[in-house]
TrEMBL record:
Keywords: ATP-binding, Helicase, Hydrolase, Nucleotide-binding. One of its GO terms (molecular function) is helicase activity. One of its GO terms (cellular component) is nuclear RNA-directed RNA polymerase complex. This is DNA2/NAM7 helicase-like C-terminal domain-containing protein. It comes from the Eukaryota.
């Protein structure tokens, strides 16, 4: 039976099984490739990581019996490489690649199983949305058919497929669904007709076409089409295999797999750059990748006992004439030499505090950053990290050499942070900035983008000539490719020969005939028409008919460029073809094919068709595609000459970490000397290495490793898990350097900003659990308390259970907390003291975010960040309808929108009032158990901070228990517990315990539901109010309850005795 299961080749030991893909809870550390005791795990298991194909091969997808090789991060662990840069590159590549493609492998294997089951007839069920055993979701499209081969000037061969379209995607539903968007990764899984050969080929979505596009091809309103481009770099064998499918040389069953919202470019460029980087291409390897193990390894030194590493100053500032120019920050044009900064640091720091707007922590950090060639600055929430980064940039720009000054490189993780940093520079007077990449949503940045600035850059004539040669070469190959696609389509549809399919055969085997059919016109379409002219007996047909056919052929070749053929050019081409035919006919040779009758020509075409090796033809066409892609790469490199010149003319180059990796080769050639990385605590070390070019002499990292870490897809790679603690993919270079996990590593010296300007001191006390040294700026004490609520911060404690995750979502929700948040927001808005933009709602779960969105959008306009919206769409929690379509910040001011967000996507943001819905109310605290996430959640509020959650659940986490103690110590918590919809809980001040009271009167319940402050007031003091009439009247009169509710509340409470109104259940 095993030998009949599908595999890649007959020699492969990896098979597609019917059983579910096993989940390995550990990794193999025997070594890669042949170093493993059992030999290579699959055909992509190589000793040298630079030989590993980034996307998984089919054999790798089927290799499920053995866990993959993933090296441990600790340099004391066994490894086939010695400590040093090469080992660091190998480790980071293998870690990042596993995190990027493990889900792809899992999904592809599961999709292949579904195809096998359909082929075997063991299942008739078909669901567009599928889920693997590991929880990876994807979309599956069945009944896939090859329609035609197309071509694109940039991407080469384009494959057009049709498939059975799910009901909700038909017609205009395709746009609303958000499926199959351009650039997303897809896979074509094929089980060949013999049932034993399996292949998986990856594509990027080039264009999506709805069911309307298939009406002309008998789609009957149920079939849609899609255009797919091969992923780059495309292997010739993969192209050839797909061409064989498209041309009917191989047949089988196909399914199309969509990896939801997975951009190929999102992970490819960093991995590809890591493979390009050599050991000598990384700066500061003596700090981040020392070749020799520390003395501490041999002596088993414990963690924390090693002194901080000594960091020398940047090389460029060690010359005698160099001085740091502080005139851009200070009132006077002061400047300092490196010696002055090192010998008298306190004098320099005192000067900064006196003459500039920098506070104590920022002044110390600026000094340290200037005097260390690799510098780390930790900035707790609200301490002005971006402000410090802008100040550093200004000083470094002012201190550059006047002869050929190099630009400053600014790298950020997100587009939002990059735009914020560049806006700060612009406000400070730095105008010569350029932004690489197109991810910005800000209109003001458009004129600073590289593509806009480079248009005005002039190049030397020889560079223009080289670029022209590259463009012409690519255009020639593309023209051949385009003609070949049309020829193959025609040959497959009608079975007749075309010039692209016969040209190579005639050139190699019948050269004399090839010469007779080749005209002097270089246009491949004209040559193709000459062949058709001969094959169809055109030299005997009406001239007007021939002219119309030639015009159609030539116009088809230029339609993509939007150009046209002049009458004169058309006549000239036709004249050349006819003169060529007449000349060949007049020749007396016996083998002159132009003297053959039409029947003899048809016989000759049939002999050629039988003689042509179509397999070889597919191989030649696949090679043509790869050659075209190489030519397009040469064109891109020629354009980079212009871009490079433009970049060197600027003062600051800004880009994201992804853009830095994708433009690594161009940026490396600029020989940049200074790099500033903001959000450094959230940047994976692999991405950081892509910015440490060998020419860099000064690298400055600003961030906070104690806030959110880099995001990972596979939790087995996270240091927050037991297994992941050995691999630590989400450990940034900043965190590894500041708080080394490896006992053999000395920590890097780190500066710390210590004055926060965001939170009121009461709220800042929560963050002081993480940063005991944090001080409050005097201005924070003037922050007003929350309007309409007596307490600046309180905890609404409850025991209402969380809702179990649905099969579709898997994300937790808590309906009770949704209702509480909604009521609180409505109450705050009725006071007219806050705009929507001054209130933020945070939660750790996408499921709760979707529930809050659905509840709050009924009464106010809400804003979801792009990342949150994407997360909800990925989980199917947010319909992409017209009402919920994303709105840009330009359409509505942020002050008109209530911000709701997940905690992970709100780092770097703040609001006057923040309400946190913690969701979990069971045995486990969930996402909010990590210190980093708790730190972010509790440090976003300026004036008021309110938590709704189960203190018993969260109190299992030590940091949460400390936070609960802070709330309790300040008597700012409201304890209550609701057992049913009709029960409220009042705080018993005398007994310090919970009293559960059931409200029978429906009108009071309605008041509780409508009026948040009434609920809070009654829950805290109702047991006092029911004792006497005066107590009730005074209590209600003092409360901030709507006047329409006051009188009725008093009368009702007095009419009802305590026994009739409430049933106490003391605890």
């Amino acid at each position: 039976m095993a030998q009949d299961l599908p595999r890649v080749t007959a020699l492969s030991s990896n098979l597609l099984a019917v059983e579910e893909r096993p989940i390995h809870n550990d990794f193999d550390d025997e070594g890669p490739g042949y170093l493993s005791v059992h030999g290579p795990r699959h055909d992509n298991d190589h000793l040298n990581f630079q030989d590993v194909q980034i996307l998984p091969t089919t054999d790798e997808i089927l290799a499920v019996r053995r866990p993959p090789y993933i090296p441990k991060k600790d340099i004391r662990e066994p490894n086939h490489l010695e400590p040093g840069p090469q080992r660091l590159l190998d480790t980071l590549f293998r870690h990042l690649r596993f995190d990027s493609v493990e889900g792809i492998r899992d999904i592809s294997y599961h999709a292949a199983q579904q195809l096998l089951k359909q082929t075997l007839g063991t299942t008739n069920d078909y669901e567009p949305q599928q889920e693997t055993k590991s929880g990876n979701r994807y979309f599956l499209y069945v009944d896939v058919r090859f329609e035609e081969l197309l071509s694109d000037e940039k991407r080469g061969v384009i494959l057009r497929l049709s498939y059975l379209c799910p009901h909700f995607m038909r017609g205009r539903g395709m746009i609303r669904s958000g499926r199959l968007e351009q650039g997303m990764l897809c896979a074509l899984v094929c089980l060949e007709e013999d049932g034993r050969s399996l292949s998986v080929t990856f594509f990027e979505v080039h264009m999506t076409q709805s069911t309307d596009s298939m009406k002309a091809r008998n789609g009957k309103g149920v079939r849609a089409a899609i255009q797919l481009a091969f992923t780059t770099p495309a292997k010739s064998d993969n192209v050839r295999r797909v061409l064989r499918y498209a041309q009917g040389l191989s047949s089988g069953q196909y399914v199309l797999v969509e990896f939801p919202k997975l951009l190929y470019a999102g992970f490819y460029h960093c991995l590809h750059t890591l493979q390009q980087i050599r050991s000598t291409d990384i700066a500061f390897t003596k700090y981040i990748a020392p070749r020799n193990a520390s003395f501490a390894v041999a002596n088993s030194v414990n963690v924390g006992l090693l002194p901080a590493m000594n960091v020398v100053p940047p090389a460029y500032c060690t010359t005698a004439e160099f001085r740091f120019n502080l005139g851009c920050l200070a009132q006077n044009n002061a400047s300092f030499s490196l010696a002055e900064l090192r010998d008298a640091p306190m004098e320099f720091i005192t000067f900064l505090k006196r003459e500039t707007t920098l506070d104590d922590g920022q002044a110390v950090a600026l000094h340290d950053c200037l005097t260390r060639e690799i510098a780390f600055t930790q900035g707790p929430p609200g301490t002005g990290k971006t402000f410090l980064g802008v100040a550093l940039s200004r000083v470094l720009l002012a201190s550059r050499s006047t002869t050929k000054p190099k630009p400053l490189l600014v790298v950020c993780l997100t587009n939002h942070a990059l735009d914020s940093f560049l806006a700060g520079l612009l406000a400070a007077g730095v105008t010569k900035i350029v932004r690489i990449g197109r991810g910005s949503k800000e209109e003001w940045i458009r004129k600073f983008e590289l593509r806009a600035l480079s248009r005005n850059t002039r190049l030397a004539q020889d560079v223009w000539d080289m670029k022209g040669v590259a463009i012409r070469n690519a255009q020639t190959l593309y023209t051949q490719l385009e003609a070949g696609c049309k020829g193959l389509n025609a040959a497959y549809a009608s079975g007749s020969l075309s010039w692209p399919t016969v040209e190579a055969y005639l050139r190699s085997t019948h050269h004399e005939i090839y010469d007779q059919l080749t005209t002097s016109n270089d246009n491949p379409y004209a040559r193709s028409f000459a062949f058709d002219y001969w094959a169809g007996g055109g030299d005997l047909r009406n001239l007007r008919e021939l002219r119309t056919e030639l015009e159609t052929c030539l116009l088809g070749s230029t339609a993509s460029e939007g150009s046209s053929i002049s009458t004169e050019g058309l006549d000239r081409a036709l004249e050349q073809i006819m003169l060529h035919a007449q000349y060949q006919s007049a020749r007396a040779e016996q083998n002159n094919i132009w003297r053959l009758t039409l029947e003899e020509r048809q016989q000759m075409l049939r002999r050629w068709k039988a003689a042509i090796d179509r397999e070889e033809l597919m191989a030649q066409f696949a090679t043509l595609h790869t050659e075209h892609q190489s030519a397009e790469q040469a064109v891109r490199k020629s354009w980079q000459k212009r871009d490079s010149k433009c970049l060197l003319e600027q003062d600051v180059i800004g880009l994201t970490t992804t853009a830095c990796a994708s433009n690594w080769e161009m940026l490396k050639a600029l020989n940049l000397e200074i790099v500033i990385c903001e959000e450094a605590g959230e940047v994976m070390e692999a991405h950081t290495l892509c910015s440490l070019f060998p020419s860099v002499q000064h690298a400055i990292f600003i961030g906070d490793p104690q806030q959110l870490r880099p995001e990972v897809n596979e939790q087995k790679m996270s240091l927050e898990t037991a297994i992941g603690s050995q691999y630590r993919l989400d450990e940034s270079l900043f965190e590894r350097s500041m708080i080394p996990t490896d006992p053999s590593s000395s920590p890097m010296p780190t500066s710390q900003l210590n004055i926060q300007r965001r939170m009121h001191p009461d709220i800042a006390d929560l963050t002081r659990l993480v940063y005991p040294y944090l001080q409050d700026h005097p201005n924070t004490t003037t922050h007003p308390s929350t309007n309409g609520i007596a307490e600046r911060m309180f905890w609404v404690d409850h025991r209402m259970p969380e809702a179990e995750p649905s099969a579709a979502s898997k994300s937790y929700t808590n309906p009770y907390e949704v209702a509480m948040v909604t009521g609180m927001v409505q109450y705050l808005l009725r006071l007219n003291a806050y705009s929507l933009g001054e209130i933020a709602i945070l939660t750790p779960y996408n499921g709760q975010l979707a529930a809050l969105h659905d509840s709050l959008k009924m009464t106010c306009s809400v804003w979801l960040s792009e990342k949150d919206r994407k997360g909800l769409l990925d989980e199917g929690l947010l319909p992409e309808s017209g009402d919920d379509a994303p709105r840009s910040k330009d359409e509505l001011s942020m002050g008109d929108l209530l911000r709701i967000a997940t905690v992970d996507n709100f780092q770097g943001e703040e609001a006057k009032v923040v309400i946190l819905s913690t969701v979990r109310s069971g045995e486990r605290p969930g996402f909010l158990k990590t210190m980093n996430r708790i730190n972010v959640a509790c440090s976003r509020a300026r004036d008021g901070f309110y938590i709704i959650g189960n203190s018993a659940t969260l109190g299992q986490v030590p940091m949460w228990q400390q936070i609960i103690d802070i709330f309790a110590a300040r008597v700012m918590s409201i304890h209550h517990k609701i057992l049913t919809k009709s029960r409220i809980v009042a705080f018993n001040a005398e007994r310090s315990e919970l009293a559960v009271m059931s409200v029978k009167n429906p009108v009071i319940r309605q008041i509780f539901m409508r009026d948040f402050h009434a609920r809070v007031l009654v829950r805290r003091f109702i047991h006092v109010a029911i004792s006497a009439r005066n107590s009730v009247r005074n209590l209600v009169a003092r409360a901030n309850i709507r006047s329409s509710n006051k009188s009725y509340l008093v009368v009702t409470l007095l009419k009802c005795s305590a026994r009739e109104a409430f049933r106490p259940a003391w605890r």
